[in-house]
Structures
1.
Amino acid sequence: MENKNNVIHDVVKSMEFYRELGFEYLPVKEEDISDYLSGTGMSIAQEEPVPLKGDKRGEGQSLESLQEEMAGCCRCKLSGERKNIVFGEGHPDARLMFIGEGPGREEDIQARPFVGDAGKLLTNLIVKLGLKREDVYIANIVKCRPPYNRNPEDDEISTCISFVKEQINLIKPEIIICLGRIAAHALLEVKIPISKLRGNFSSYDGIPVMPTFHPAYLLRNPKDKWLTWDDMQKVLGKLKK
Ligand code: URA
């Protein structure tokens, strides 16, 4: 009994430690701890992890509450020069989710993703797919404009990426389209050139991901537009099934 109490004490201490580190779930399978549970009459839920105190999902996390969580964000150095946080927009139950790299000048001013020149090209593409912007969800890997439109840096991406991952988790799109190298590398955790990645489905958390060229690249290289169009046909083909 003494020994069991010690074990329980240690488990509680470990859980408190992980919670302080920011963990919201401890992914434990019943089969892994069946020896410890045998004879105790205890079991653990398999379908839904039991939320620890402070677990947002347990409290009904939504896109709105996630956006509120970001309000006034100063978790990384991009907060210093941005005008607005560009959270993302679109249908909360979108079947298609587009993910870019980060806001540009116009997006920073309007607090909306893809509303500059590259955004106009993306909007045209969405319309050509037979959809409206409001039907899909559009977000970025980082939510604040990198100064002078430089690429987001690794520390900025790793600080912000949990937000886009939570957006994906809440929206549960059927297909994700990564626009450009930065988005594809950040989400898929690979370093393969976008010219090789594009056109083939990868997977994030069980969701098919189609990497394709960034619209800003296509503005500079219009001859490659047909490749992105080709990628979109694959997306449409999978979506219809
Ligand atoms: N480029 C991006 O990656 N995202 C935007 O929102 C605008 C331009």
2.
Amino acid sequence: MYGTSILHLTTLKDWSEADVLRTVERSIDIKRNPRHYSAALSGKTLALLFQKTSTRTRCAGEIGMTQLGGHALYLDWRNTNFGLADLGDEVRVLSSYADFIVARLMQHDDVLRAAEASTAPIMNGCCNRYHPLQGLTDLMTVHEALGRLEGVRLTYVGVLNNVANSLIAAGLKTGMHVTCICPEVNPAARDEALYSEASAAGLYEYGEEAEQLQDVLAQSDVVYTDTWIDMEFFTDPAFAEEKERRIALFQPFQINADLVQNLDLKILHCLPAHHGYEITGDMLHDPRSLIFTQAENRLHSQKAVLLQLANAPE
Ligand code: CP
């Protein structure tokens, strides 16, 4: 089997606490001292293989690699032979050219197949179950704002999805408590083993009722939301009926000025946001919002992940 001893980032569940904390600490240092890292990956290449659109993950990867002294190559899945061939064959070939691969694939099983075949570290760039690059950025953003992770109480509101899973896994590694107030779990994302482990560790709670929000948010340091509808379905006519059902169901869970009135908490969203759905547009610019800092931090964090996977010296 190829690549079995390589550290990949398919899900945060597989990373040690030390890997997670070192990456968070280094991402903050990279933000403060970017020049110190300007040749850290000189001569190395990052390939970005995407089945779905992206702004942050793609740009943070390409620009971050340039800032580390390396080179990045973007591959739109549809313009390659990945769709015609065996995934393992194609990934094995790509990994013989590139030193790192970010793979944004629809299915987590395909991310695992890619990691199994690859001779270079694979970073999951967001699949149906996890978004670990986002989770590490979120830890960085919370740590930067609050000066700690252990004991922080983060409440995630909306549909329990890939981003929520990565927050729960991130909390489990760092002692950050995650409460999900979600009327529905995205069926493709459901990870009962993760929820059980985090719950047993006292780091995860789940509720389904909008009436719980006021009390839970009053105890929270951070409120976090994400789209109610996966981005590939948002404008899909075949998804229109389901979209209307979700909007009606999730409307009471919208992050808006009334909900967070007088609350001392930070507001996060992984973006892209759908204004007027999961969050009102004014909340992105609220003094409590860290949303654009969080988006910027994707760059610093993704550079730190590359260095962690490269086992780069301090
Ligand atoms: N949050 C996030 O992954 O953004 P993109 O889809 O634009 O990469």
